[in-house]
Structures are given as structure tokens and as C-alpha cells.
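Morning F.,

Quick status update on the modeling queue. The single chain you submitted on Monday has been processed. Sequence for confirmation:
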Amino acid sequence: MFDPMCPSSALPFQIGDKWTGMVVLCLQGGRRRFTEIRVPLRGVTPKVLTQTLRAMERDGLVVRTAYPENPPRVEYELTELGRSLLTLVDAARTWSRDHLPALLRAREAWTQAAPVGQSGRP
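C-alpha cells below.
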């Protein structure tokens, strides 16, 4: 079932992380500087955004361009491979929109059923 030679073992797991999909959406309109990505994401720390962008660059999802200027200017842009994620992100957003009420009801029911003091059970 989980054969190490399976092509899916190379799947860039950060696609499902909290920030990658949002970064993809931030870059869908074209290249942006680090701060232009960070502003709409509000809750992301510079460290986490840097880690996310580096992982995306490693996997060929974004290209980072540094310009030899003072002060330094760096821009990020989706690659063709990165742009292909827009279809997945759109599908996830559609699923979330269609199923969010049921998901929230399930979470609430689970929380209500938890023994006292164990609302955060694993």
C-alpha cells in the first residue's frame, strides 16, 4: 500500500500545510515581494513564511528572483508547476464552502461528547 517506490512518495507534503495554499493564492496575480505576500496573510510570522517559500522554491513551485539593488529587492513568482496548484486550491475552497457547516457541526458534536476536561483530546 505504501510502497517506497510509489511516485506519490515524492509528493510535496507542504501543499496541505496551513500557508502554502494561501501563498499560491497571493501569487496567482503575478510576482510579489515578501512583504506583499505577508500583508494579506496577517497571521504568518516572517520565519514561517520564509520556510514556506523556501520549501515551495525547493519543489519548483515558486521562483525567487533577487535583484542586485540597495536596498535588496527579492520577488517571488509561481512557476508553471506552481500555477497548476490553483486547480487544487480552488477545489479545496469549493469543498470547504460546500461542507463547512457539516464539518463545524461534527466538531461541535465531538467537543460536546468529550469527557469533562478532555475537549482537546487527540
